[in-house]
Specification:
The complex is a heterodimer of chains A (141) and B (412).
Chain A lengths: L2 H5 L2 E3 L10 E5 L2 H10 L3 H5 L2 E4 L3 E5 L10 E5 L6 E4 L2 E3 L3 H11 L7 E4 L4 E4 L4 E2 L2 H8 L1
Parallel strand pairs in A: 6-8
Antiparallel strand pairs in A: 1-7, 2-4, 2-5, 3-4, 3-10, 5-6, 8-9
Chain B lengths: L15 E2 L5 E2 L1 H16 L6 H13 L3 E4 L6 H12 L3 E5 L6 H5 L4 H5 L16 E5 L6 H13 L1 E4 L2 E4 L4 E6 L6 H7 L4 E4 L8 H13 L10 H12 L4 H16 L6 H17 L20 H10 L13 H8 L2 H16 L8 H21 L7 H16 L10
Parallel strand pairs in B: 3-8, 3-9, 4-5, 5-8
Antiparallel strand pairs in B: 1-2, 6-7
Helix pairs in contact in B: 1-2, 1-3, 1-9, 2-3, 2-11, 2-13, 9-11, 13-14, 14-15, 14-16, 15-16
């Protein structure tokens, strides 16, 4: 785990009113429920979304990801819009500082990246796929 | 009803006598105005704050200035409030060559022959309960000077004519704020300033949908005017106990001054009227911390208002209002106001009767319900959700779970 993720504290708080949702992340057993929910979307609606997966998390990008209980919603970082942070979490240090430190610590992840504070995990989103039934199937496997 | 003859006395039960017919409680009057706001906002995208501020100003016996580019539904918002309130509505687009007679009425020629200069005010601004003056700063000096008397003292004076005006609220509109200092002083007479922007990209579909639906079916005007209820609230606002918020208001003014944002002494005093009006529109006869939010709209520029929202974030955090929730939220960006607005949206959706609805309607309903749940989860961490919002969220989750199916996937 790189220093920025180890040292930066996230404090849960009410999201500012102008917060823009750009995606959501499911972890644990929420993943399976979310996939079931996504499967009942029409093909056209799925195509408006993009999906990325890690060993423990599933991210769906789009401004209105289908809802299930337990999702973590993402917003763009103020200084680095390809760095996504939880809508209901505020950093204990200035966001631009955190963003720069994180980018410096992870030069291999220069593209979009979601920060998951609870598991202190980073979810690369650079290779997010357009959501189709086959990419959903892929995400499930 | 003759508005100028309506005098409301508080009776021993805390109700207000509206005349010989009915006695209306503060809560009933507030609910009546709530329904006026709800009807006025129907199909009007992102103009709830404008509608609510017009009602707030009417209860406070103050006036509103709407600043925004053409085509941003300024006049439509005011027309709808006026239709809900009932009474006489006067609307005029001022220009550089507008004659005072076009606004206040023509000189009575018959009396002029007798050497008396009187104005025939029938159907004109001096007899209006609600007025809307578009491009208000283009009015001539003669018009604006006469208007000052009407706005400040509710008195129309011209020649030998002097009459009390029944005006509850005047809304001025303009594309921009004037640079001319004398006009700036005139704009200061409008206690509330609202800066409107064209509809945001994210709401364009809603705007198109609402505009099309409205074209197809126009809401009929309310059969029962709400003017008597408004008068109950006007009277109640005069006796509201604002003492509990004075220290908070003073502190808010100090914070603003510290940041170089100055409210004139007159405006500071008048903000108390807005606070009192917000309290009665919430059905209370005592003001508290939740009612301070109108101070943001008493500031004269969009930059100052934005700065105030940040500076006063903690002071205004408790902002909420049953009738003016969107305006309270807009001013405060406060969690409680946002929670109240979300709950209201959810309540309306949960109450919809879908027994006769087809699959498409049910699906749209469910997506909207999911949208509300998404907004709750994206905004409030579980431990920061007010109890009522938690209950609302549980209800939404139950209703969504009852109908787990969705659209048949269109493979292909």
């Amino acid at each position: 785990m790189a220093p920025p993720l180890r040292t930066a504290e996230f404090v849960t708080s009410v999201a500012p009113a102008d917060t823009r949702v750009v995606g959501a992340v499911a972890q644990g057993d929420v993943v399976a429920r979310w996939i079931r929910r996504l499967q009942i979307e029409s093909d056209d609606e799925l195509r408006c979304l993009r999906v990325a997966r890690s060993a423990h998390a599933l991210a769906v990008l789009g401004d209105a990801p289908p809802w299930v209980d337990g999702l973590l919603y993402l917003r763009p970082c103020t200084s680095d819009t390809s760095l996504l942070l939880p809508t209901t979490a505020q950093l204990s240090i200035p966001e631009p500082l955190f963003a720069r430190a994180l980018r410096a610590a992870y030069p291999q992840h220069s593209g979009p990246l979601a920060v998951l504070p609870a598991s202190r995990e980073l979810l690369p989103l650079a290779h997010a796929l357009v959501l189709t039934r086959s990419s959903l199937q892929e995400a499930m496997s | 009803m003759s508005p100028t003859s309506t005098r409301l006395e508080k009776d021993t039960r805390g109700s207000y006598d509206t005349g010989p017919i009915v006695s209306v409680s503060l809560q009933e009057a507030a609910q009546r105005l709530q329904s006026v706001i709800t009807r006025a906002c129907k199909g009007l995208v992102q103009r709830e704050v404008a509608v609510q501020l017009v009602v707030l100003a009417a209860v406070a016996r103050e006036h509103v200035l709407l600043i925004g580019p053409p085509g941003t539904a300024k006049s439509e918002a005011v027309r709808r409030v006026a239709a809900g309130l009932g009474g006489h509505y006067f609307e005029y687009l001022l220009g550089r060559f507008t004659e005072p007679a076009e606004v206040f009425g023509p000189v009575d020629l018959q009396k002029l022959r007798e050497g008396v200069v009187e104005t025939q005010t029938r159907g004109m601004l001096p007899e209006a309960e609600v007025a809307f003056l578009d491009e208000v700063f283009l009015g001539s000096t003669a018009i604006l000077n006469t208007l000052l008397g009407v706005l400040n003292e509710r008195t129309f004076r011209r020649g030998h004519t002097q009459l009390e005006c029944p005006l509850r609220v005047c809304v001025g509109a303009s594309n921009t704020l004037p640079d001319d200092p004398s006009l700036a002083a005139f704009s200061d007479r409008f206690l509330l300033h609202l800066f409107l922007q064209p509809i945001a990209d994210a709401h364009l579909e809603t705007l198109l949908d609402a505009g099309w639906s409205l074209q197809a079916e126009r809401e009929p005007a309310s059969a029962e005017p709400a003017l008597p209820a408004l008068d109950v609230l006007i009277d109640a606002a005069r006796t509201v106990d604002v003492a509990p918020i004075r220290a908070h208001l003073a502190e808010a003014v100090r914070i603003l001054r510290g940041a170089g944002i100055n409210l004139s002494d007159r405006r500071i005093v008048k903000v108390q009227k807005l606070v009192a009006a917000a309290a009665v529109l919430d059905g209370r006869d005592e003001a508290h911390g939740a009612d301070l939010w109108p101070i943001v709209f008493a500031l004269g520029s969009p930059e100052e208002q934005d700065r105030a929202r940040d500076l006063l974030r903690e002071t205004l955090e408790a902002s909420a209002n049953a009738s003016l929730g969107t305006a309270a939220e807009n001013a405060s960006l406060g969690p409680l106001a946002r929670a109240a607005r979300i709950e209201k949206t959810a309540e309306a959706l949960l109450q919809l009767d879908l027994r006769a609805a087809d699959d498409t309607a049910r699906r749209r309903w469910k997506l909207r319900l999911e949208g509300v749940a998404r907004e709750i989860d994206a905004t409030f961490p579980p431990d920061a959700q007010p109890e009522s919002l938690q209950n609302t969220r549980s209800l939404i989750a139950e209703r969504i779970a009852e109908d787990p199916g969705g659209p048949a996937p269109s493979h292909g």
